[in-house]
Design goal:
The protein is of the alpha+beta class. It has helices at residues 10-15, 17-25, 47-71, 81-88; strands spanning 7-9, 31-36, 39-45. The protein is elongated.
Amino acid sequence: MNRATDYLSATALSKKTSATLDALERGEAEKFIILKNNSPKAVLLSMESYEDMEEEMEDLRLTALALARLESFDEKKALSHRFIKQKFGE
């Protein structure tokens, strides 16, 4: 759930850019939702939060890919471990 301090007007951001970035870096805020004319326009994250989010999205993408491959796996078309070892060596 968002706290009131998670929201920041574009005007306040322009006046307090350095302090806002410092608050993100120190972990005092996870994110700021930037408002313009009282409407959400952007999200400002720390680099750590952004990198964590990117890593989680990549993990989810790879999981979805693995699950899709399991759904279409045909054992009759699969190459055995023994075959691969013989073909490419150990």
